[in-house]
Amino acid sequence: MKNIKVLGTGCVNCKTTFEMIRRQAEEAGVTVNLEKVEDLPAIMTYRVMSTPAVVIDEKLVHSGGVPSRASIQTWLES
User: Fold this and answer.
1) Is 14 a catalytic residue?
2) Is there a cis peptide before residue 52, judged by omega within 30 degrees of 0?
3) Residue 60 burial (CB < 10 Å; 0-12/13-18/19+)?
4) Res. 78: pLDDT tops 90
5) Which of 3, 9, 11, 44 is catalytic?
6) Which of 4, 1, 11 is nearest to 71 (CA)?
7) Which of 18, 49, 62, 77 lies 20 to 30 A from 11 at CA?
8) Which of 58, 67, 65, 69 is nearest to 35 (CA)?
9) CA neighbours closer than 13 Å in the CB half-sphere of residue 71
10) pLDDT score at 41
11) Do 22 and 68 meet the contact criterion of CB atoms below 8 Å apart?
């Protein structure tokens, strides 16, 4: 199971990113532990300068803007 965190302070893009990952994981039948991290000090521990950001198994894979469906699919498959 992948542990996925969406980092962001609650903006529309952050919420959209969270929902896109949730939906695509469900459609693909991939079990994930999906978490929304809105606490700014916690976000800063990942050295993220722009949100939304995505962390998979404690590795930063994306930051700044809503990721593409293709990117999300790649993350779920790897």
Assistant:
1) yes
2) yes
3) middle
4) no
5) 11
6) 4
7) 77
8) 58
9) 14
10) 94
11) no
Domains (range + CATH), the chain? 2-77 (3.40.30.10)
For residue range 6-64, list pLDDT tens digits in order.
999 989 999 999 999 999 999 999 999 999 999 999 999 999 989 999 999 999 999 99
Q: What's the predicted TM-score (pTM) here? A: 0.94
Please say if 74 is a catalytic residue: no
Residue 42 CB coordination number (10 Å):
11
Which is catalytic among the residues 14, 53, 55, 72?
14
What are the tokens at 42?
């916690």
Bridge partner list, 33: 3
Q: Which helix (H) or strand (E) holds 14?
A: helix 12-28
Q: Packing angle between helix 12-28 and helix 69-77, nearest 10 degrees?
A: 50
Amino acid at 75: W
